[in-house]
Design brief:
The structure is a single chain. The protein is an all-alpha fold. The protein has one domain (18-133): Orthogonal Bundle (Globin-like). It contains 9 helices and no strands. It has helices at 3-8, 16-20, 22-39, 44-48, 55-68, 74-79, 84-88, 95-111, 116-133. Helix 3 (22-39) crosses helix 8 and helix 8 (95-111) packs antiparallel against helix 9. The longest helix has 18 residues, at 22-39. The protein is globular and about 50 Å long.
Length: 142
Amino acid sequence: MSEAAGASAAPAAATPYERVGGEPGVRALVDRFYDLMDLEPHYAELRAIHPATLDGSRDKLHWFLCGWLGGPDLYIQRYGHPRLRARHLPYRITVLERDQWMACMIQAMQERELEAALAQRLAEAFFGTADWMVNQAGPATG
């Protein structure tokens, strides 16, 4: 390829996975998310629908987010299609848990210092999925 042809080629845009910091960045985000959920009393209802130990939840969210953000499909390699709604149906998820999940993830993204535009874009996408997980009527956060 000539230099002129190479110079005109636009570089590939970084995926959200790359912008978060690849697998170590995703792991750090997930770990902060679960640390906050475990420590902060205002995430108590969200924490209550999780197992006593969060190790498995941490791994599954980490593996899922790697693929969802444009990296390797680690979750699919282990478990197949995520079937998110079906996998969450056994748990009582109301708008309260949805809102706590969102607040916890937004806090984790802020504390991990994700670029503001990326964090906003991810928050919007996370909300669509989190809202889809709501499977029971319940109180809204106030």
